[in-house]
Amino acid sequence: MQIKRSYAMAAAVLAVIIGGVWWWLASGGPGNRLYGNVEIRQVDLAFNAQGRVATMNVQEGDKVKQGELLATLDDSTYASLLALSTARREAARAQLDLLLAGSRYEDIDAARAALEAAKATLANAKISYARQLGLAGRGATPQQALDDARMALDSAQAQEDGAQARLTELINGPRKQDIDAARAQYQEAAAQVQLAQTQFNNTKLVAPVNGIIMTRVVEPGTVVEPSSVIYSMANTSETWVRAFAPETMLARVAPGTKVTMTVDGSTKIYHGVIGYVSPVAEFTPKTVETPDLRTQLVYRFRVRVTDADDGLRQGMPVTIILP
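Predicted structure:
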């Protein structure tokens, strides 16, 4: 029985070795491999406003989705500014609408009636003045009475001119310059509302991309500036692998080339597409391991991983298998 078990174990080990050799040959051997490291880009998140932190909704290690609310500021001041600017906009809009609507028929009728009354007063003043002028010619009235009649006539004429001007103004409506000025004031007030709305929206911090929270920098109650970092998160929406290719393999790492990748300690095969190849050569970095250890010029390139998961971590060594 012991001999049978030994044979079975040896057969299993041999099968594993044969499978590994077969995969190694199928992948082209060491001449078909390049080596690199995972690059997960980090995003530092901050409010674009000043204030006291009200809530912190996520912890370190939490996965977040794009658009998810992460933290908020005390927005009472910004809400008041928004309400104030909104009220000013509505007042400016009402003034503009009033000018655009023109004169009311009731105002025109009242101005026409005032003009008729002014005309009647003027006619009476003319009669009184003519009477006083005749009496003064015969010496039957004092000079003061004649002066008073003349003054009443002039006043009645001025009132009639004013009533006529008022009626003409109401019939013609507001001037174009007044309407343009009111429209400009309304546009200014509307811009102030947009600015206040933007400032109010900036009191909410949302995730710009899918990712994982790496660091929670502050806690609720902290007063922060627009440049204060609130969270640091890893951008998991796109994962890249940075690698280097010698000049002899440069033609095989053209942009758009599909490759497969493996990492230490895992049997999963990842897939990716070469997205960028540096046009400038550089010396082999010390952190890059290649079968050929001699110093040589290499070209940096990046691979976008198309099926990345939590198994890929920042800086993790990756073996790239070319087609």
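Summary: Confidence is low (pLDDT under 50) at residues 1-5, 12-29.
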